[in-house]
Fold this sequence. Notes:
The structure holds two protein chains of two kinds. By secondary structure, chain A is mainly alpha-helical. Chain A has helices at 3-17, 23-33, 37-53, 64-118, 122-146. Chain A has two domains: 3-53, no CATH class; 64-151, no CATH class. Chain A is built from five helices and no strands. In chain A, helix 4 runs antiparallel to helix 5 (122-146). Chain B is 65% helix and 3% strand. The termini of chain B are far apart. At the A-B interface, helix 1, helix 3 and helix 4 of A face helix 2, helix 3, helix 5, helix 6 and helix 7 of B.
Amino acid sequence: MNIDHHEGFQRMIDESLAAAISAEKEQSLREHLATCVPCQEYLSASNRVIAGLGGFSFEVNPTLNARVLVALKLHHTGTMRQHNVQFKVWAAFAVALSMSFVGSALVYQVAKLLTVPMYFDAAQVQAGVLVFWLLPSFCSALRLLAAPGENRGIA
Amino acid sequence: MESDTQRIALGLRQRDVAVLETLVEQYQYRLVRYLVSLLGRRDGVDDFVQETWLRVLERGESYDGHSRFEPWLFRVARNIALDAMRKRPMFSLDTNEEDGVRTSPASGEPSPYTLAARTEDAERLADSLQTLEPVYREALVLRFQEDLSLQDISVIVGAPVSTVASRIYRGLATLRPQFEGEIT
């Protein structure tokens, strides 16, 4: 039996150990191993390596689990708080925005009633509502989103 | 019926701390063992473990529950460790010709493998394991200690299955001489 022949089977042993071998090759390997001492030695040494790998037991710091769990809870609480703040800010923005539009519509209606006695025309009323009511209130609503979390006065 | 992996995925999506507590209890030792095999040292591993679980909490929704949890967890841990190695030279690592890392054991200190060896065979392997290329050590640990398939390992290390198999063969070839000539 030549060296190449053994090398082929030893390669099959590696493949078998790594679970990367076909059933046919496995059968052929078994038959070869039954009679080949060098390949038996090769398999035995490989199995010793694998058994040796299982012979290590690492110390785990007894406080590690507790430390990890505390970190997880703190992180989780912080994240939830942040989500809450974000939700409140968006809710406040939505309320402010709708109040701006509703308020503007009301002001517009009232101003329209005053156009005749006060000699305004409709375009002047529209511009006035837009410049002195809608835009300022819209900007105030936007400021809610732009302010840093702690300064929003909501959380 | 809901499988374990789907329950885990649901818990992670909901950021359920109780699910995470169970996972920490279940996988902590394996995570430590894997990170030691990757880094070749024990110090600093606890920080990586903590960072890994925080990342799991933050990005748990990316685990789909269709595959095993361990490969996903180990991949998260691996990414964190490799990022830290690239940023922090304190780990004294050099990149090798593949994508792996090479550990320079601190002089004078016993290696984590020497300290962790509990059997005669393990004692004989300890020194060789410490100096083994981390990519080979990692492949051996994932295959023979974590009992993961080549496909799972391939997902963790981000390399083709053939590369993983080749790393296992080369790792075995490096360690095998310790036991050659002894039939048991």
